[in-house]
Structure formats: C-alpha cells, structure tokens
Write a structure and sequence with these properties.
By secondary structure, the chain is an alpha/beta fold. It has 16 helices and 15 strands. It binds guanine and zinc ion (ZN). Zinc ion binds at residues 75, 77, 239, 277, 329, 332.
Length: 447
C-alpha cells in the first residue's frame, strides 16, 4: 500500500442531475492491490480523518499539488498524430487529402510501432490514462498499439478499422495472400482473431470498429453486428452525424434506414459500450435511439470547431438523456490536452445557451473527461460501480498530479481562486501538458 497527501479532486457517484465534484484541500489517497493484483483506491478523504487508520502506510507528501483522476479520452486516432493541424474545407476532403494518405503508412510494422510509442507517451504526458482509440485497417497497427499499451499497463481499447469500400485500394481491408475468403470476410475473421488475442488481457479491450457507414458495405456492417452479438462485452466504435456532406452520403448509401444513426442500429451496432463520435446533427428520434439502446456519444469539440463540423447539442442530449463524454479526436482534433478539449467544450456549450447562458460548469466539463467518460466505457466492478475515471474506493488507481503553479500565469491566477469552480476554471482555461507534473498508472497486473 502507498498513500499520497495532497489536495484531491474526485467525483461523487452520479446518477441523475449535475455531476458533483468533491475536493479535499489537505487530502489523503491510499492505494493498494485488490484481489486481482491491480492497484486500486483503498481510501480517499481528509488527511486528518484517514491518517490514523493508515499510520503504517508510507506517505508521499505533495504540498501545493492537486491529485485528480486520470483523464479518459473517448475517441482518438493513433495513426493521425501526424495529421494534426491539416486544414481542409470539411471532413471529406480532409480524409481524402491528409488522413487516408497518412493511414496507408501503417501497413508497416516499424512505422506502426514507432507511432504507437509516441502516441502513448503523448497520452501520458497529457494525463490521459484510458483511451478508446482508432487504429487503421491494417492488423499491424492494432497489434502495435495493443503491445505498446500492454507494456505500460495503460487501459486501452482499440480494434481493426473496418472499411471495404470508398477509400484508396491499399487502405481497404485486404484478402490474405492465398486466402479463400474475400476481403470483407477476412476483415471479420481478423477482428475475431484480434478479440481472442487481446480482449480482456490485463487492461486491454477490443472495439469492433467500422470506420463509418459510408466506407463499409452492407455485408461488412452485418458481419460486424453479428460479431458484436457473439461477443457481448466488447466495445463498438464508429463515427456518426459529424458533417452535412457525410450525412447526405450515408443517407444515399443506406436509404432504407430512418436516419444515418439508425443505420447502425439496423445492423445491430448500438448497445451499451457502443461509442459514436460526434453525434452533432441529430433529431430527437436519434437521441431517443441513443438512450433506448444505451449507446453513448464521444464529443470532440476541438475537432468539430477545426473542421467546421458543427456544435454538439448538449441541451438536446440532456433533454432526452443519453450518455456522453469528451474526446480529443486527434488528428481532426487539434490537441492531446484534456484542458484544451474541456475549454473547447465550454465554447460549444455556449451555442446551446445551457445553464442560463453560462455554458457548462467547470465541474461538469472536468467530469465529462474523467468520471463521466469512464461511465460511458462501462468498466464495472461486481457491485456495478464504474472503475475508471474516478477515485472512489475500488476504482483503478490511475491519477494525475497537477502543479497549479506550473507557469507564471497559472500560479498568479490559481492563487486568486476563492472557490473550487474558480480553481478548476483557471486550469481549464490556462492548462496544458505543463500542468501535468506526473501521471500515475495502476500497476501490478497479472497480464
Ligand atoms: N469519419 C470517418 N473517419 C473519420 C476520421 O478519421 N475522423 C473524423 N473526425 N471523422 C471521420
Ligand atoms: Zn474520429
């Protein structure tokens, strides 16, 4: 067991209503192994209350620092690290001119391995301890990312990108040399083999990953849905309703479905643990479908602002009630930093005039990138409690140590904070990777 004495931020268990942050100015976080050998939170609270009970446990004192849950990135593309900052008039030209050419390079094992190492370093430098990530349509890229995450004990979920049409030929899923099945069937067999190899190994998880409906045939989406039915605890990830041209294209290709989103439901791809990126241009029937199926949205505000895609409708989502959390969507997104993403979400929230025109509260923004995003991933203990993105007893001990004096302006501004909201807002507006002094990953896994 080990204890950390510092200021501590975490979140009350959440069901309905606004998320509630908890803050202990002089706190104690006690971590130790659970029955499976994973480091989990044993206790959290005020130092003066907890220290007698844990008098035998070594304590690391971190004066002036804030411990907070590690951030959860609900949607990020590891092969798009080099694509950040590529300007385009909109999503589809951006994919064609920058993203697809870069993703082709991930057929190479060496290229994939180097990029995976850099990507995970970048997540950790920015305080991200859990990610639901896209790889490419090459199994090499999936294996490289899983291997790198396993080496660092990172909680990471990814999968083979399914695309069997409407992309450059060498980016489509491939037939195996001398194989007897077509490329579509091969992509499903490869996905299943990857599930067997990686899903549930340590903290790794598999996500069935149709890129988006326009780049899959009916047969591939049907096969993906059948795979999802056979493996009920794997994740599903895709994109939906991001851009007007994309939506028109999807409607043309799948005219029988009620809407673009409904296409996924028609193929059995909506349920708990299904995470759809963007979800911008929805009507209330789409929102109701999200709610009824238990699927969730990965809101990617820096990407949506950069590509001119639109604004996620927070008021609409809350009115109908479906799950969501924040995501960087690198490389459509412009930053790995959760602080940049939370600030962009604040700007987006202004559009809907929620919360009496004040946009989202700092506690809500922070929750969307930690406990709220963790809840979307639905990694649960035997009592049904979410184990990711929070520091309640039993949660996996992934956390960041923040230095609120990391820059002269941060030091000046955070010192003026007279309440928790002001402190959190200072960090959301002024923070970046410099604020993250340390990222601690729950170790000790029997992988
Ligand atoms: N839709 C399909 N593929 C992508 C992608 O790589 N990024 C974004 N932002 N949207 C997509
Ligand atoms: Zn994306």
């Amino acid at each position: 067991m080990k204890a950390y004495r510092a200021s501590i931020l975490w979140f009350a268990p959440h069901s309905e209503g606004p998320p509630q942050a908890l803050f202990e100015e002089d706190g104690l976080l006690v971590v130790g192994p659970n029955a499976a050998g994973l480091q989990v939170v044993q206790a959290i609270g005020a130092w003066r209350d907890l220290s007698p009970r844990f008098a035998q446990v070594p304590v690391e004192h971190l004066p002036g620092r804030i411990i907070a849950p590690g951030f959860v990135d609900l949607h990020v593309h590891f092969p798009q690290t080099n694509v950040i900052g590529s300007p385009a008039s909109g999503l589809l030209p951006w994919l064609e001119n920058y993203t697809f050419p870069e993703e082709k390079r991930f057929a190479s094992i060496d290229y994939s391995a180097e990029a995976a190492g850099f990507f995970i370093d970048e997540l950790l430098r920015n305080g991200v301890t859990t990610a639901l990530a896209f790889a490419t349509s090459h199994t090499t890229s999936v294996n490289a990312l899983f291997a790198e995450a396993q080496a660092r004990s990172l909680r990471l979920i990814t999968g083979l990108c399914l695309m069997d049409r409407h992309a450059p030929p060498d980016l489509l899923n491939q037939q195996s040399p001398g194989g007897h099945v077509d490329a579509t069937m091969q992509s499903l067999l490869d996905s299943e083999a990857l599930i067997h190899h990686w899903h549930g190994k340590g903290r790794l998880g598999y996500a069935i990953t149709p890129r988006f409906a326009p780049t899959s045939t009916d047969a591939q989406l049907r096969g993906a849905g059948e795979l999802a039915a056979r493996y009920s605890d794997v994740w599903i990830q895709s994109h939906v309703a991001e851009n007007k041209d994309e939506i028109a294209w999807a409607r043309e290709l799948f005219p029988k479905s009620r809407s673009y989103l409904a296409t996924y439901d028609d193929f059995g791809l909506m349920r708990e643990r299904a995470v759809y990126a963007h979800c911008i241009h929805f009507d209330d029937d789409d929102r109701a479908l999200m709610r009824a199926t238990g699927a969730s949205a990965a809101i990617s505000p820096t990407s949506n602002l950069f590509l001119g895609s639109g604004f996620f409708d927070y008021a609409g989502a809350d009115r109908i009630g479906f799950g969501y959390g924040l995501a960087s969507d690198v490389g459509g997104g412009t930053s790995f930093s959760p602080f940049h993403t939370m600030l962009a979400a604040y700007y987006v929230g202004r559009e809907g005039q929620i919360n009496h025109g004040l946009s989202l509260s700092p506690q809500n923004l922070w929750w969307q990138h930690t406990a709220g995003a963790g809840r979307v991933l639905a990694v649960k203990g035997s009592d049904g409690q979410s184990l990711v993105g929070n520091l309640l007893p039993g949660c996996e001990a992934d956390f960041v140590v923040l230095n609120p004096k990391a820059t002269p302006l941060l030091a000046r501004k955070t010192a003026l904070a007279s309440n928790l909201d002001e402190l959190l807002f200072s960090m959301i507006v002024l923070g970046d990777d410099r604020l993250i002094e340390r990222t601690v990953i729950s170790q000790g896994l029997a992988v």
